[in-house]
Amino acid sequence: MTKMKSIRIIPAILILAIGVWGWNYFSTSKDESEDKAPVKRTKAERKAKALANAQQTHVIELASENFQIELTSHGIVKPPAITPLNPQVNGVVSKIAANFENGSFVEKGEVLVELDQSDFQSQISSATAALARAEAALAQENARAAQALRNWRDIGFDEEPNALVLRKPQLKEAEANLAAQQAALEKAQRNLARTKIRAPYDGRVRSRNIGLGQSVGSGTKLGELYATSYAEVRLPLSTRQLGKIDIDEIEFEHIPVVLEDALHAYDDRKWPAKIVRIEGELDPNSRELFVIARVEDPFGRASKSGGHPLRMNQPVTATIQANTLNNVVAIPRSAIYGKDEIILIKDNAIHRQTINIVWSTLDKVFTDTEGLDKALLSTSKLAYAPQGSPVRIMEQVPHT
């Protein structure tokens, strides 16, 4: 009997256990299904989450401005004149000025070389004597002509005497001889003066080719000078540059230029200049137009400023003031994508913008595209930047 009761209790316990297990199973599944159910978020929450995961960028605020275009060109400094020194008379070098050395500065009229004057002084003495004889001959002919006229009148002729009677041919010959002797004396005096070879202008000695005791003639090159009152630089302008500068070749006005040393980057070595003339034709090969810039007193001798000299044959970089661009926006070159595209940030989203580039420098481009004033420009290089994709601004730098 007791055994039969035990057999009946076991199924009841099994049923109860199965029931408890089933209740726990379904209860746990319900909780898990409730946990896995999607959470409904608002549009603002979804946008904030996307923005939190978006790529980041630095930006600057763009601003319109007026920009003075400066054209860059290159050239070589040249003197306005290079003059070979040649004597006008033959002779022997008797004296050379101490200042007649390579690189020395000379002043206009300064005697650089002297030739032996003995022969030329003798020529002056001979010409002076010949002139005295011619003056005496003319005086005699004047006296003879006067005497001939008195004789004619004393004889009692009524008609006027002719030219032969008045000795006019002889008088004319005497006058011509006197003029010739005067010219010969003047020539001898000029030749004597030419034994002193003088500097034709304020300049600098480029070279000296002669020595004491050397025989020279009109074909002998004594040396070379170049002028130092100003220097000139021939500067090429491309077709693109010519479109940004107004040059009136009829009523030409000087255009300011600043020259810098092209060999060394010295901030304190700049020379003010001005464009003084323009060549009348384009270069047949490059199609460039050459303008001539002038630098006054390149060695600083007249002003005595003590500045750095601008030497001849020195390569220089020229900065020329050109037209002014009004209401343009400057954009860093690093912010340009492709040829002419930039990325603006509007409402934390990417907006790709094509611009019209009107001018460019080494580090900036300038555009007249409308709608860019106060716009935010992305300055970071974005690897993935489709139109409208979210972006987070890291820092806003004011436009400078």
- Computed Rg: 50 Å
Identify the CATH homologous superfamily of the largest domain: Efflux pump adaptor protein, beta barrel domain
- Fraction of helical residues: 25-40%
Do you know the CATH architecture of the largest domain?
A: Beta Barrel
For the largest beta-sheet, the strand count, sense and barrel status come to: 6 strands, antiparallel, barrel
Structure write-up:
With 400 residues, the protein is α+β, with helices and mostly antiparallel strands. The chain folds into four domains: 53-68 and 326-397, conserved putative lor/sdh protein from methanococcus maripaludis s2 fold, CATH 2.40.420; 71-79 and 229-322, Elongation Factor Tu (Ef-tu), domain 3 (Beta Barrel); 82-115 and 196-228, RNA polymerase II/Efflux pump adaptor protein, barrel-sandwich hybrid domain (OB fold (Dihydrolipoamide Acetyltransferase, E2P)), CATH 2.40.50; 117-194. The chain is built from five helices and 21 strands. The chain has helices spanning 2-35, 43-53, 118-155, 168-193, 239-242; strands at 55-61, 64-78, 82-85, 91-96, 105-106, 111-115, 196-198, 203-208, 215-216, 223-227, 230-237, 255-261, 270-282, 289-296, 315-332, 341-346, 349-354, 357-360, 364-367, 376-378, 391-397. The strands form five sheets. A six-stranded antiparallel beta barrel has the order 2-11-14-13-12-15. It has a four-stranded antiparallel sheet with strand order 3-10-8-5, with no helix packed on it. Strand 12 (255-261) and strand 13 (270-282) form a beta hairpin. Helix 3 packs antiparallel against helix 4. It is elongated. The N and C termini lie far apart (106 Å). The model is unreliable at 1-5 and 30-37 (pLDDT under 50).
